[in-house]
Amino acid sequence: MNILLVDDQPSKILSHEVILAELGENLITATSPREVFEHLLRSEVAVVLMDVQMPELDGFELAAMIREHPRYEKIAIIFVSAIHLTDLDRLRGYAAGAVDYVPVPVVPEVLRAKVRVFVDLYRKTRQLERMNEELERRVAERTAELEASTRRLTESEQRRSLAMAAGSMGSWDWNVATGDYAWDAGQYRIYGVDPAQFRPTRETVAALVHPDDRAAVRRATGDALRSGRTSRAEFRIVRPDRQVRWCITSGATTFDADGRPVRMSGVTYDITERKLAEEALERLNEELERRIEERTREREMALAQLFEAQKMDTIGQLTGGVAHDFNNLLMAVLGSLELLRKRVVDERSLRLLDNASEGAKRGAALTKRLLAFARRQELKPEVVDVAALVCGIEDLLRRALGPSVRLTTDFPDGLPAIQADVNQLELALLNLAVNARDAMPDGGLLSISATVVDAARTGFDRLRPGEYLCIAVADTGSGMDAATLAKAAEPFFTTKGPGKGTGLGLSMVHGMAGQSGGALHLVSEPGEGTTVRIYLPLAAPELAVAEPAPAPGPSFRPDLPRLTILVVDDDELVRTGAVAMLEDMGHHVVEAASGGQALSALEARGGAVDLVVTDHAMPGMTGAELVRVLGERYPGLPTILASGYAETPVGAGAIADVRLAKPFTQDEIASAMERAIAAGSRLAQG
């Protein structure tokens, strides 16, 4: 999709391009109203990111001009302004057609999130429009078929009228007393009998009427004889050659002077062609209604999937942001507790410090689950043999399930490997086992199996084409109703009692599957148990299964040389904790609260710094952007990029020497420093 960036200052456009590059969309730029409309005429644009203050036309006037054209009514217009807008200004912007407003300084994550939401909404809207067009096309086709059938029916009626004169109509006269009929030639042709061999009587004529219609014909005849009204009946006949024909007969009764019926005369019409046309028309109508219902269901399902995706994306963004801020708080708490522990000697105080540290570490584990749901947890994908992995943790699974739950596994020979994070997959299976145990308080069976399926058979349109490994975890527990199942993967939703669960187990599995390029599917009914299916992409055949990594040794080296370290973080609590850690290790620390301050400090010192430790998520210049600038101005300067999201920003992994997830300990930052200095030395020597 195209995103149009509008600003009279190229430097601002360049800044927005850097921030939005990781969306993977096509970015086009304009510095004047003329260029804006040239792009709009040539290209399909999903989002316009526009500065409010511009020399030729301000953003309000330009937005109003864009909205005057019906062609551009679905484009999302987002204002960017460095000046404070009053409520009246905002109302004016919304009246002009804007959908959102981003203040300056721009927070990159906020801008990316807002643009991503409106691009996805535009894409889904276009998909729905295409579906509507397809539905309208099919309805038009069926309407044309219906009109053609109507024409055929009309033509058939015309042919029937002509056929009556040529033999599709016959006349008859029935002697009530004797039961004999007098037929004309047309009547013999309709019944398909030879006048020389067939004598029409009440019995012989009744024998040619279809058995299912004889009672109705007798009723119509009897009513006419008693009442004197015209006899009318529609029925089928079975000719001697077994051909079934539809007929309508109409007759009038003649009475004698005493009021007794003596004869009945009438005509018979062969309406077989009309009945066939009516049946064909009815079938066409039923097919048309079926297809319209089918297309309506597909559209409703697409809308439901769109709303669900938007809801989960919004929850994910909120959850990821909360986890990031919580990680920063835990960074300050854990760092301070670690330093304080070195200065406390009495056992009671040490126990209290250990309790506080354990609580903070549990909080850190909780944020990892939040980040896993928000798909912002760092994954380390490697080639995994699922059968071997489950075998390796089988004892742990059995201990988690307890003695009352039986565990079975089913993995066919030659099962292909997958590409996934081993630790996250093990944790996901353990979470599912614990959920299953809680759903089977009286015991039961938990089965884990795996099969290879094609993406087209999973029911998930967002999966890339190809084969996936489906890991199925099924229990015989209490199951869930439809309302519970719809919320089961949402964060903090739990069916357990207070204090018995965080509600993050399934949400973590959902996030891990999605971040790994797969999907999660839940099937459950009350009393029928629950089956959780995790779809994960297969590994490339040429990749080998990774060997278990050796256990890491102690990372803190007290004999590190005394370094001058620049610490950059906009959060004063986090920055203070990191500075205290490094100073406790004997290093000299220079502080900076932003990327701009960091560059100024380096320039003032003539670049005399041994190492830079920077946060990533900072307003204005992000940590990744700072590292990129440092690489250009100070080649070989070791850098460590820290992130409360525990994820590698797009492009940053190839720029920073070392990444470090918050919260970190003194040992972890010491190890990161060694690796960063070693990487910087190799770069300088190269």
From TrEMBL:
| UniProt domain Histidine kinase: residue ranges | 321-540
Database matches in SMART domains = HATPase_c, HisKA, PAC, REC
What's its EC? 2.7.13.3
**Response regulatory domain span:** 2-119, 564-677
Q: Which residues carry this modification: 4-aspartylphosphate?
A: 51, 615
Looking at the record, the residues that make up the PAC domain are: 231-283
Coiled-coil stretches are: 118-152, 271-305
Q: Which reaction does it catalyse?
A: ATP + protein L-histidine = ADP + protein N-phospho-L-histidine
Question: Which protein, by its recorded name, is this?
Answer: histidine kinase
